[in-house]
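Possible race condition, two jobs.
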Amino acid sequence: MREAPQKLRVLILCTANSARSQMAEGLLRHLAGERMDVFSAGTRATSVNPFAIQAMAERGIDISHQRSKHLNEFLGQPFDYVITVCDAAAESCPIFPGKAERIHWSFPDPAAVEGESAKAEAFRQVRDGLEARFRAWLETL
């Protein structure tokens, strides 16, 4: 009997771990299923943005149980991939042990958009952009 393949470990980083990386964690966990262990963190952890929770709920993905985490919680842990989804996180991303492949996708901060309806739409656009990137990336693995 063959052993089950080991799950890939993926860490997704952004600045506050409140919007982009939270949506990315939920999306990748949903799309990859049992193939990956997915985590997210930030260089300045805060709280999960309610607009991120709503944007993901519109896709049927519940991220309301996720919490904002500082990247220090993951230092010293091995990852197969470290994905940064904002420029600030890419610049301050530490070196992780092992052979973690670093991937950078730059997405604007939807929380910076003014006005409730415009902000909700900005979150949807980032969500949809992340989903497209993840679908294409998963096809290459």
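Job #2 (started ~2 s after job #1):
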Amino acid sequence: MRLTMTHEKVKDYEINGDTMAIVPFINEKGAVCSEVYEREAVILVEKKPFRLIKDNCLYYGGSYDGKKEAARINMGKMCFAPIMIDSKLDLYFFPIQSPRNDTCIWLAQPHIRRIDRTGHKRASVIFSNGMDLPIANTRASLVGKLHRAAQYRSVLVNRTNERERDRERERDRDPVLT
């Protein structure tokens, strides 16, 4: 289902909990820009998708390279590592191809409901709001990347929850901390 959404044009964009996908497009001047799909809007951003991801990593307190390295340390060596932009806001994105490629699409793992095969090397990503995004890639490849991003998210969420439980147990044992 394609949703009718409003379009807004901006120079910069803050990735947030409504951000579902960042898709490259060529503007009227021939420059690569980003079409950002939110739950109820499409925002045209005058930056390449990779630049937008890198800038938002910095905005939320880390470098892209540092976040990529963290994914590799936690998940092992992999191509096209998922990126945790901000764990508290549940901002986990993954590239469908090399991030440095101007045609690379970035998808927000928490928003993906399912991925359907639509043809030979073609798939459609169905988001939590019912919107579908056709992608020239195999379903198997996209599902693998989605699962890797979900696993990474799970590792980080479980670790955070474990640390919170440890702090609660410590507070329960030491009345001075209460």
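The chain is about 35% helix and 30% strand.
Logs attached separately.
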